[in-house]
Amino acid sequence: MRLQRKSPIPAPALWNLEINPQGHLVWGGCDVVELAKKYGTPLHVVDEDQLRHNYRAFIRTFKRFYPNVEVFYSYKTNCVAGILKILHEEGAGAEVISPYELRLALQLGTPPAKIVYNGVNKSAESLSLAVRQGIRTIHIDSWGELRQLKALAKEFGRTVGVGVRVRPSAGWRGQFGFDLGNGEALQAYVTLSQRDPLRPEGIHFHIGSNIKTPDLYVRTLREVCRFLKGLKDRLGLELTYVDIGGGIGIPGVKTFTLFERGLYYLWDRIPKVQRGSDQPPLETFAREIGNALLQGCESYRLSSPTLLLEPGRALSGDAQILLLTVGSLKQGSGGRKLAITDGGSANIAFPTSFEYHEAFVANKARMQPEITYRVTGQVCTPSDILYRSKKLPPLEEGDILAVMDTGAYFTSYA
To answer: What would the pLDDT profile of 205-248 be if each residue is shown by its tens digit?
Structure first.
């Protein structure tokens, strides 16, 4: 038996979509059905005005609550060069995690002083390039990386500013960085303080993706500030920046919990998502994060560091949509209706395997959803599913499906 949770039908206007006299969706002033005809599908469409607005609102809001802020866009979120150029024009730096991304940032003309190099298992070639270019900072992720950087700094006669990636008690842990609670992170700073070519300047953490409340950031910043107090007391070391990574979510995109994923995959039960009420506004994140860092520094008598932010989804997530064309329509087992499109989770929409994104039929925008479909891609694997259970208007071959909020990780996984 398939279960479907009833919820209000979402309105396109919640995504700043309009409907023209032809009954087509209009986004950023463009009839998306005509875009699909002109350029073909699958087609990602970016609203430049929305992207620029998102960056300006993001940095303005954070600076209201913590004036000393630097923003570095997360290249891994969406490394389409046109998007990156727009964000760099607005003033964003580059947060990179691979040799490719580092070279891309430099090729796009990003000043080295506006590049942060993160990631695990960095190659010797890319570390060499980062040292020679004199980028803003390199976040050390392992003991081997520390030794490599020391050797490279000596080879090129450079003093290299670095930070340490730490694993706090909450959020993502896994293979990343040095543990904050067992003395490993402290030992990394002890070692750095004894190695002249490497200058310890900052601390870095990243606690998750599509985070819906600021609570985890606040908790982690309190833990980090206690750690910074220990560095000051034991080593006489005061860091100049705290990098809290990215992860701030956007309204309307739901990352499945393990329980929700089970319900979705076993019984096609879609988690309840209501755009506009599923997370607080950006101002709440900025206020809580800014206040947590200010209060922590005041409590422990620390100098206020620069706050580094690495947003990805928060800047580009809702500035992009994905257009797909409906092809074959079939009757599946158990009476399930199947709609096969030219894009699915196996080739262009992998995030739909662990996130829920709203979708509309762009050429039937005034029609009410009446029929529940399983929407798939065309790759020859049963796992190539876009929606396991999605209520849509009656579909026909050639209809255009518009998937919302595809500006984060869709192109990265494609």
So the answer is: 999 999 999 999 999 999 999 999 999 999 999 999 999 999 99
d(CA 30, CA 17): 10
The domain of 351 spans 12-46+318-413
Rounded Cα–Cα distance for residues 94 and 71 (Å): 8
> Residues 143-147: contacts with CB within 8 Å, 24+ apart?
143/188, 146/188, 146/191, 146/192, 146/195, 146/198
Give domain status of residue 107, yes or no. Answer: yes
Number of domains in the chain: 2
Q: Tell me if 204 sits within 8 A of 243, measured CB to CB.
A: yes
Nearest CA among 248, 161, 246, 166 for reference residue 204: 166
Q: Which structure tokens are listed for 213?
A: 């409340």
Q: Which amino acid is at 43?
A: L
Report pLDDT digits (tens) over 169-210.
Answer: 987 777 889 999 899 999 999 999 987 899 999 999 999 999
- Looking at the structure, do residues 168 and 286 belong to the same domain, yes or no? yes
Residues 207 and 322 in one domain: no
Residue at 61 is within a domain:
yes
